[in-house]
Write a structure and sequence with these properties.
Elements (H helix, E strand, L loop, with lengths): L1 E10 L5 E2 H11 L4 H12 L5 E2 L29 H27 L8 E6 L8 H9 L6 E6 L5 H15 L4 E9 L10 H9 L2 E11 L2 E11 L7 E6 L2 E6 L3 H20 L6 E4 L4 H11 L7 H10 L6 H11 L5 E9 L3 E10 L1
Parallel strand pairs: 4-5, 4-6, 11-12
Antiparallel strand pairs: 1-7, 1-8, 2-3, 6-7, 8-13, 9-10, 12-13
Length: 360
């Protein structure tokens, strides 16, 4: 038998928040005038996102007096510190993770006591002992479980979690590995009104996903993978720890950089993955422009990558969690079979490519 993704469980905090409502929050938080407000709402309308989720209630507020975490005054002072934001992560991430894991194990027909390895993925929160330690007790995992943490790698980090699980299974075929991604992106809202923050605030949402990997004859078979670094984009997508949360560097040039990089790699992708024969795709839903550029570069239709668009529309960009939501949708789609090429992007600029096979 081969190594497979056999089940994916997902979860989100609270209720879906309309994209337009989040735009209203941003207008209030930044005290925008009528002209800037119209510009911001236009960006939100063309984002390809209809709703997102947040661990905070502030983004649903109808006026500043309803803000619960961020300051109510126009100057946005005192702004929440990184410590305060990590407290929100520590309070909320374990329960979000537990929900995703419970759904994953139920779909995969596995018991918590059977899990031999746990791989935690997150770039929006960290503490020690971490989320993985809290859920070991809550879920009833064995105290001999091996645990690993992949932190701060960004949107492509789930690919590394899957690759690590694949290598564990190759070394010990009897293992059952759980890859858990938890991201609370919205707790890192930044008060400075600049282009980078405007783009980030228009895209990111919160969520968790758990993936059960084991040797099986069903699910998504792991066939091959490859990493590629484009160092000329290291200043266009970056992630730093600041005094007031984590600070995202995300320029409008990222879609063009990905387009150029994939065009450069097309021949290599064809040789390694038989690109021209692949009919189904799972591209990280980092934003509507990213999806369009990647699809153009690969010469594929919207329909071949539809689940990525649907995840973006309903959840926004949940960083490393997003691609796992796409995999969850693909596992439920009986019309998809055969090879599937997945791609993820993140700081570096790094491109991760994963070839899967949907096996009934």
């Amino acid at each position: 038998m081969d190594n497979h993704i056999v089940a994916v469980g997902t979860s989100n905090p609270g209720n879906a928040i309309p994209q337009s409502r989040i735009g209203d929050f941003m207008s209030m938080a930044h005290s925008l005038g009528s002209s800037e407000r119209r510009k911001l709402q236009f960006i939100y309308r063309i984002s390809g996102i209809e709703s997102r989720y947040s661990a905070l209630t502030d983004f649903q507020a109808k006026n500043p007096e309803d803000f619960a975490f961020f300051p109510k005054n126009k100057s946005l002072e005192p702004f929440p510190s990184t410590k305060q934001r990590m407290k929100v992560f520590q309070d909320m991430a374990p329960e979000l993770a537990r929900e995703a894991i419970t759904r994953c194990l139920s779909k995969g027909g596995a018991q918590a006591s059977e899990i031999t390895h746990l791989v935690l993925v997150s770039c929006t929160g960290m503490y020690a002992p971490g989320v993985e330690m809290e859920i070991i007790e809550k879920m009833g995992f064995r105290n001999t479980i091996e645990r690993y943490a992949i932190h701060f790698m960004g949107c492509y980090a789930a690919f590394n979690g899957i690759k690590l699980a694949d290598r564990i299974l190759k070394s010990d075929p009897s293992s059952k590995v759980l890859v858990l991604a938890v991201e609370l992106c919205t707790i890192h809202f930044q008060k400075e009104y600049n282009e980078d923050n405007l783009l980030a605030n228009a895209l990111f949402g919160d969520g968790a996903a758990a993936v059960l990997m084991m040797q099986s004859e069903h699910g998504l078979r792991i066939k091959d993978y490859q990493s590629q670094i484009f160092s000329n984009g290291d200043k266009d997508m970056a992630w730093h720890i600041g005094d007031h949360g984590f600070e995202m560097k995300l320029t409008k040039y990222v879609p063009e950089l990905l387009d150029t990089g994939i065009q450069f790699l097309r021949e290599q992708l064809e040789k390694r993955f038989s690109l021209s024969k692949v009919k189904h795709f799972a591209i990280h839903p980092g934003g509507t422009q990213i999806l369009k550029k990647v699809e153009q570069s690969l010469g594929i239709l919207w329909e071949q990558n539809r689940h990525a668009h649907q995840v973006l529309r309903s959840f926004g960009n949940m960083s490393s969690v997003s691609i796992l939501f796409v995999f969850a949708a693909i596992l439920q789609d009986s019309s998809i079979s055969g090879n599937l090429l997945s791609m993820g992007f993140g700081p570096g600029l790094t491109l991760e490519t994963l070839l899967l096979e949907k096996v009934p």
